[in-house]
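Preliminary data (for renewal application), flavin-adenine dinucleotide complex.
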Amino acid sequence: MKIYWTKINKIIEETPEVKTYLLDCPEGYTWEEGAHIHLALEGFNAGEKPNRSLIRHMSISTMPNEKSVGITTRIKENCSEFKAILRKLEVGNEVAVFKTHSNVPLKREDKNVYLLSSGVGLATFRPLVLDYFERADNVNQIHSLNIDSSKDFLFPEIFESAPDKKFTSQFVDNRKDYYEEVKNLATDKDGLFYVVGSDEFLVQNIEVLREQGISPEQIKLDKHDRQLSDFLPSDLSV
Ligand SMILES: Cc1cc2nc3c(=O)[nH]c(=O)nc-3n(C[C@H](O)[C@H](O)[C@H](O)COP(=O)(O)OP(=O)(O)OC[C@H]3O[C@@H](n4cnc5c(N)ncnc54)[C@H](O)[C@@H]3O)c2cc1C
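Predicted structure:
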């Protein structure tokens, strides 16, 4: 496994609680849209065993042609040791990235694509949408629905409806509106439904989608194959 140590080149305050860390792209390093990495802080591999409290999974919120590896995360006042250290990091400080993998590349199957996310889950979808804007081949249209109770919605310049690009973006700030809209979207019985958020959020979305007759194969989660069957048992009947 190759560990890339790289420098923070910019920190963007997306909202009062959400920051994007742009990291120098290590030479020869690339990734697919929807990819996640292990982000590790200084000292994580100092002992015999890796120190888990200094490592987190993070989606890459940028595309390779943006020339930086973007990490977008919410840092609340009461936060983990990992986030408390991250908050104090500055441009020029080093972090490590490793184990890059995408569970949710954009499927080009001539279908309508629905991107359902909660909070910073939208960061996983940012590169999918940019990839689609660059090349819409074999994707009918994309519809993004994001719920964020803070009402500080992320990436407003990209997540803005653009009828000419067949892209629709919706933000809601409460669960009632969110799940009503998921039911509406699920009237498309042939769509692909990507879901990103906490495990509890995934379970609730899957329940609503399955009730509407959406099959497990139409639901795409940011989970490794070995974890997928916990969320989407293929023998589940509607
Ligand atoms: C494939 C994948 C991709 C992911 N991508 C992203 C991503 O792009 N961005 C992202 O942010 N996360 C992402 N995650 C989740 C990420 O790995 C972390 O689990 C998540 O950000 C929570 O981080 P944390 O554990 O450091 O806790 P925090 O975010 O600091 O805290 C989680 C909750 O616990 C509370 N809490 C924690 N510690 C304390 C404390 N000491 N006192 C009081 N309250 C406390 C916080 O208030 C908060 O509500 C991804 C996970 C996976 C599996």
